[in-house]
Amino acid sequence: MKKIIAAVFLAGLTVQVSAQSGTNSPYSQYGLGALASQATGFNRGMNGLAYGFHEHNQVNYMNPASYASVDSLSFIFDAGVSLQLTNFDENGNKVNAHNADIEYVAASFRVFKHVGVSFGILPYSNVGYNFSNTQNVNAFPSTSSPNATYSNIYSGNGGLHMVYLGAGWEPFKGIAFGANISYLWGTLNRSSTNTYSDSYVNTLSKNYTAQVKSYKVDLGAQFTCPINKKNELTLGLAYSLGHNLGAEPECSIISTNSQTSVSDTTRYVVSKAFEIPQTFGVGLMWNHNNRLKFGVDYQMQKWVKIQYPQLITINGKTSYSLVDGQFTDRHKLTVGGDYCKGERYRGFFSRMHYRGGVSYATPYLRINGQEGPRELSASFGVGIPIINGYNNRSMLNISAEWVNQKAVGLIKENTFRINVGLTFNERWFAKFKVE
Predict the structure, then answer these.
(1) What is the per-residue pLDDT across 42-76, written as a single tens digit (0 to 9) for each?
(2) Residue 326 and residue 336: Cα distance in Å, rounded?
(3) At 338, is the secondary structure helix, strand, or coil?
(4) Is 68 helix (H, G, I), strand (E, B) or coil?
(5) Are 217 and 240 in contact (CB under 8 A)?
(6) How many CA atoms lie within 13 A of 351 on its CB side?
């Protein structure tokens, strides 16, 4: 089993590095792309609810203080995949797209009393789109055809990923602190091509590329207060450091003569570009008798002051430089819960977990001077215990998620996603007696 887990982890790492993006959204052409969820399988059943949860048998990356609660006898390994179908609606024109992606690979175990560690690989953002539009040309030079058309083709791929190592420590009963340190990397590729059916007009292409190699730091804390013998409240706090990623994005403008196929290329480079925002999170979780857990999370990402490179032409002079006003602060509110009759019961259905959650999030993007699409989402999930002669501690987490994104005058998106996460819980550190 240990060899299988190690092989799955390495395979997940390889696939994450080379995999296609986990999105088809045209909104991923802006900023750092479509922001990915860092929730693992059990969190996704509650639509990403995480800050107040400290489970002994699950990996909760979103608050590293939770690692301190990991069972002392276990090695927990968690891997998840997703399958999604998205419907795009623009002025009554509807298109469907689907994809699948390996979402995350994570592991956790206890190293000392009250100290747990975790490591794994997670997505940060995804870029993936390909669309075009064709229109008639209203005014052309006299040499052109009266029925000439022009087409704009847009495509992009890539995204940012992170490998992390984290630790959680509980110095006093009910008080825990934690931190994640991540290596953040990835490539963002975007292009737009303007072509004309008339052979007298040049083809113009703009290619945007950037490589990111940086770091990410996340801090967390949890404070648990017993109310009585059957009830307790946990306050969870999280903070992510915002900083410049030091990337050097490049923009290449290629003008190709349609008759001679001769190209002229102009390149622009911006130094010390791209930033990740400061992120603040707070959550409250109520635990009733270890059966019903209900919580609420609030997250704010400070994007509004972050600059982003943009191609600008003023008085016939073109430049590629950092500009303001491309982003806005993002706020997200999540409510959800988990119910299980009790893990100490032997019955299969008694050990099932039933989860649900809803979220509302404002955008971090500004598109054509207005805020991007707001997001409303909901999920329902189950945790299915794996019970056999070899292992009765592992769990299969399955959830269905619906995400709606819309804004006035912009494309509407409806996404239906299936998340599947498999949590191996192995008793690697148990001491056995021989008689």
Answers:
(1) 999 999 999 999 999 999 999 999 999 998 878 99
(2) 32
(3) strand
(4) helix
(5) yes
(6) 15
Decide: 287 and 235 in contact? Cβ < 8 Å: no
Q: Which residues contact 36 (CB under 8 A, 6 or more apart)?
A: 22, 103, 122, 123, 124, 125, 126, 159
Cβ 351 vs Cβ 333: under 8 Å? no
37: its two tokens:
């969820």
CATH 2.40.160.60 holds for 2-426: yes
d(CA 381, CA 23): 22
Residue 105's closest CA among 17, 192, 222? 17
Strands, DSSP E only, in 197-272?
203-226, 231-240, 243-247, 250-256, 263-269
Q: How far is it, in rounded angstroms, from Cα 61 to Cα 69?
A: 13
Query: Which residues, in sequence order, are CB contacts of 324 under 8 Å at separation 6+?
Result: 305, 307
- The three state secondary structure string of 124-166 is EEEEEEEEEEEEECCCCCCCCCCCCEEEEEEEEEEEEEEEEEE
Who's near 66: CB < 8 A, 6+ residues apart?
53, 54, 55, 60, 168, 176, 178, 220, 222
* pLDDT tens-digit readout, 301-338: 999 999 999 998 888 788 899 999 999 999 999 999 99
Q: Residue 340: CA atoms inside 13 Å, Cβ hemisphere, count?
A: 20
